[in-house]
Amino acid sequence: MRQYIKTCIEIEKTIARIYRIFQDSSQFDTELRRIFFALANDEDDHARQLEFAMRIPSESFVPEHDIPPLQAEALLSKAEALHQKVSSIALSPIQAVDLGIELESDFCSIHLSNSVRFKEESMRKMFAAMARSEDTHKAQLQKIKVRLDLPRS
Questions:
Q1: Which of 33, 34, 62, 129 lies 20 to 30 angstroms, CA to CA, from 43?
Q2: The dihedral formed by the CA atoms of 14, 103, 150 and 153, expressed in degrees to the nearest 10
Q3: Closest residue by Cα to residue 130 from 108, 100, 102, 146
Q4: What is the structure's pLDDT at 108?
Q5: Alpha-carbon Rg of the chain, whole angstroms?
């Protein structure tokens, strides 16, 4: 179970690195760069929360429902591949936003499923809060997407 949480930590850190690449892109306007800066900080914060949770006694990690480790591993592989991609090619603002929406949807899903899998209430609450955060991120990015999709006059 601890390995599963370690995988989740790596996912959060990898997504933060992707967002930091976007925050540094000169192709993006100041508002979009600011949003990716905030998203990167939030993902780093999620990683720190999970790292702190690793200090909790092992019995807190006993799952109430099965946790498919492949789900987290698949998401980590996807995040690492996307990090490699965005490190080597520049994405347009709309491509970056679309990628962010996709990642936040994936994260929200895994955090929601984790929020009901653990016996320890504090673990459930932590993952539920992370799911809400990812949902907020997704909504922010969707607003930006609408702005980017508007025809310029």
A1: 62
A2: 10
A3: 108
A4: 74
A5: 16
24, 40 in Cβ contact below 8 A?
A: no
* Full set of structural domains in the chain with CATH: 2-149 (1.20.1260.10)
Q: Which residue has the tokens 């698949």?
A: 74
Cα 4 to Cα 98: distance, rounded to the nearest angstrom: 27
**How far apart are alpha carbons 40 and 22 in whole angstroms?**
9
Calpha distance 72→3 (Å, rounded): 10
The CA distance from 94 to 137, in Å, is 15
**55: three-class secondary structure by DSSP:** coil
Question: Which residues are CB-neighbours of 114 under 8 A, at least 6 positions away?
Answer: 8, 67, 123, 127
Give pLDDT, residue 67.
Answer: 59
